[in-house]
Design brief:
seven-stranded mixed beta sheet; 17 helices; three-stranded antiparallel beta sheet; Aspartate Aminotransferase, domain 2; globular; 3 domains; Aspartate Aminotransferase, domain 1; alpha/beta
Length: about 475
């Protein structure tokens, strides 16, 4: 009964809580493998696999892993995409068998636990946003932007208005114009003032009956909170338009202020930036959206709802834009988000924001003497320094500083964005970094700027790959491993 024993062993290994539970005997005949499989599927010889010991295999993959930088091994001052530490307990909790063994096609009666948590996620995000309705479906922040704009388009169609224009400040996140274009809108850029804020006069000139949405990143990519945000929302609403708040920078204001309270009609969250879920190397991710009551009917379906008899998925939504992703969204990421939110609670989220802002301003104060910061004496969660003077005086670029930081044990900050800052270095420390780490980062930049320019021109010197042709790599990527 070798087959029976194998089935029993697999059952116990996949369900640790069921060890000792004996499966009923299954009538599986003991037949040779070649009789159980079609002959055309059988190999005629053994595969040419190398004979290696376990230590050799383990060391090979561990050594390969050490080629990479990660948030577990290095400080990531990556301003364009918040990289805070991912607590391992959240991974463990989201991987419990009661979650990982579920299947989305199970009867809803057997999914009550996960639906209860997803409903709670919707409620918590609605509270943080100050907006009453939430969809957990979108797979990423940019996907959330697109989904919210499709919701806006459905709303205007439903009320009989043909609005064609989306206005976007030049200090918004770079995905905003692409999302608006994909949703079928015409994009109009709005310039910034000399202080790096929205130019209200320029905004007023472009507001008309064709304005569908004003997309604003607040705090913006310069790390500045827009002091005129309530006035901006009022101006857009006066012409019948909607306010989209890019929530990628919620790490600077969650628990302190809510987008819905100052006039936003819709927004997205980046759980990987705000709630410490894994980035996923480009996917899979999550980008939940929150919207105002008048936009709620158009959200993707289904939505998790609570009834007197339990939780269910509400598909009876005739005005919905339909599904934008399979099943319930990326539940594994959403579970990690729920763990983070329940761990911190309202007071903890405010403390996260305050610490993130404190860390960023500490770093700004220490660096601005050697790397000028053109916009703002104070910042929110991030700031943008400039190497323009170094470029002019010593021919040292922002890119070369970033690459040399790799040799000093720090991941590189975002460079050359936003475009309104020449030789930009966008720096964000997050709340999870200690003062000792921030001081070490400043000291590394101070050492780099004392080094010969020629040394920086060839950096990095300690990485397996030093100076690839990045333009060619983007246009003609090699997507499979090549032996040397």
């Amino acid at each position: 009964m070798r087959n029976q024993q194998a089935v029993q062993l697999l059952f116990e290994q996949s369900r640790p809580g069921c060890r000792g539970v004996q499966l009923p005997a299954c009538d599986v005949p003991e037949r040779p493998l070649e009789e159980l499989l079609p002959k055309n599927l059988l190999a005629d010889r053994a595969p040419p696999l190398p004979e290696l010991s376990e230590p050799d295999v383990v060391r090979h993959y561990v050594n390969l892993s050490q080629w990479n930088m990660s948030v577990d091994t290095h400080f990531y001052p990556l301003g364009s995409c918040t990289m805070k530490y991912n607590p391992k307990r959240n991974d463990r909790l989201a991987s419990l068998p009661g979650f990982s063994d579920l299947h989305p096609y199970q009867p809803v009666e057997t999914l009550q636990g996960i639906l209860a948590l997803l409903f709670q996620a919707q409620e918590m995000l609605a509270e943080i946003a100050g907006l009453p309705a939430v969809s957990l479906q979108p797979s990423a922040g940019a996907h959330g932007e697109l989904t919210a704009l499709l919701v806006a388009a459905a709303y205007f169609r439903d009320i009989g208005q043909k609005r064609t224009t989306v206005l976007i400040p030049d200090v918004a996140h770079g995905t905003n114009p692409a999302s608006a274009a994909m949703a079928g809108f015409r994009i109009v850029p709005i310039p910034s003032t000399s202080q790096g804020l929205v130019d209200l006069e320029a905004l007023g000139k472009h507001l008309d009956e064709q304005t569908a949405v004003f997309m604003i990143t607040n705090p913006n990519t310069l790390g500045l909170f827009e002091p005129n945000i309530a006035r901006i929302c009022q101006m857009v609403h006066q012409v019948g338009g909607l306010i989209y708040l890019d929530g990628a920078n919620m790490n600077a204001m969650m628990g302190v202020t809510r987008p819905g309270d100052f006039g936003a009609d819709m927004m997205h969250f980046n759980p990987h930036k705000t709630f410490s879920t894994p980035h996923g190397a480009g996917g899979p991710g999550a980008g939940p959206i929150a919207v105002s009551e008048r936009l709620a009917p158009y959200l993707p379906s289904p939505i998790v709802v609570r009834t007197e008899t339990g939780y269910r998925l509400d598909d009876d939504r005739p005005k919905s834009i339909g599904r934008v992703r399979s099943f319930l969204g990326n539940v594994g990421v959403l579970l990690r988000m729920v763990c983070y939110l329940l761990t911190h609670g309202p007071d903890g989220l405010r403390q996260v924001t305050e610490q993130a802002v404190l860390n960023a301003n500490y770093l700004l104060a220490r660096l601005r003497g050697i790397l000028p910061v053109p916009y703002g004496d104070r910042c929110m969660h991030e700031f943008v320094a400039s190497a323009a003077r170094l470029k002019a005086e010593r021919n040292i670029s922002a890119m070369e500083i970033a690459k040399r930081l790799l040799d000093h044990g720090f991941y590189a900050p975002t460079v050359y964005f936003p475009l309104i800052v020449k030789e930009a270095l966008m720096i964000e420390p997050t709340e999870t970094e200690s003062k000792a780490t921030l001081d070490a980062f400043v000291e590394a930049i101070e050492r780099i700027l004392q080094e010969p320019a020629e040394l920086l021109h060839e950096a990095p010197h300690t990485t397996p790959i030093s100076r690839p042709d990045e333009v060619q790599a983007a246009r003609q990527p090699i997507l499979r491993w090549q032996t040397r």
